[in-house]
Amino acid sequence: MNEDPGALVPELALLGAAVLGLLTGSWLPRHRQWIVAALAALACVAGIIATAVVYTRPTETVFGSYAIDPITNATRLIVLVATLLAVCASVDAARGQRRETEYWVLLLLGALGAVLMAGATDLLLLFATFLLASIPLYALVGWSATSPGTEAAMKYYLSGAFAGVAMISGATLLYAAGHVTAYADLRENLTTAAADGRSLPALAAVGLVAVLAGLAFKAGAVPAQFWVPDVSDGTPAPVAGIVTTIPKIGALVAIYRLLTQAIPAQVINWPLIVAILAAASMTLGNLAAFFQTSVQRLLGYSAISQVGYVLMAAAVAARTPQAGPALLLYLAAYAITNLGAFAVAAAVTTPDGPARTLDDYRGLARRRPVLAGALVVCLLGLVGTPPTAVFFGKLAVFTAAIDGAMAWLAVLAIVNTVASLFYYLRWIAPLFTTAPSPASPLENHGLGRHWATGAAVAAALATVIIGVGAQALWGLLTTAS
Question: pTM higher than 0.90, yes or no?
Fold first, then answer.
């Protein structure tokens, strides 16, 4: 068994920064807690560099259940870049708070869980990493200690508890059907059972649905999406951006790996199951977002719909080689764009606190044109407008769906994409309308949130740059898949 810890430098960087940050923060005065934030950013940069160095190395499995392959490396890069952007977007909200250290530690642990979840090749490790990607974020949602935040944390925790029970029950059923928990052996045993005419594949199908329900919770997909709008609306904008982005990356890659490496499509018709989840997620998310007035709740429902598009690639993973790179490209594009939109929500404030409603953004283009421009780019990016990164991500996913004989799903996704333009425009339109009074709340408030503003602008620039360089990135991700 390969037990070389040197293969886990990015993961160890996140873990080491979390432990060292917790110890350091316990002794630092409140006005020096920023050192822990700097440590978190440094860990992300170190992980990115380490991943880039080993990106093209041969595939290996460490400790018998964790794959270090190009898919894991691509996920590492996406999660680490997203975490670094989340750190920048969170500085203004966390600075000077009495639990500032805990904020950074919980963020690092949640990111670590997302990375490990994507590389797991054993059901037991998958469940353990599911817990690691969940428990720190339960606490992070309630970090602000406000009434809405506490309520959101409780809903998130209870939803996660039920999802965890479903997931471990499903893993138990898959073990009963295949007698192993390792993906490769499980696939072989299920194929053998089906060839022998035994009824075990039916048991495995029930177990797979239960495991997918647990992973759907982390991804914010149907049927475990109920927590997403409440958590998005009840927490500070940076936290909402984190929980609707970072764990989603790990969960969706974990779904892709589980389906392609552990479950034979000829035994269980999982492409149809995943396609139904994709259709339900994108449609429900879009319909629910239509008449929202809270910007964070709107982004929460948007996050549900975006999962549906990504699941299209997972649905055809066994039918076309384009599915893997399409999924990774979409995740990279979505992570940057979604965090950019939430960074704008963190940067805009009123005398009563953060700008929560669409009307609070009235006249923003005249008073803060750079921030308004970043918001427009991010929102149009979520729609899939060229030349943004999500446009090429959607194009890749739609092409993969058609190539994988699911043209009906691609047509439904195109209809949903056109429909989503309505509610994004409902947020864009107030930016360019005249404020109700010359002394708008946006005039003199929120100007000090430089870190959130910088993160929003950086995300907007990145989504355009990735879009322009999508062809080169596609080649890199094709190697990964």
Answer: yes
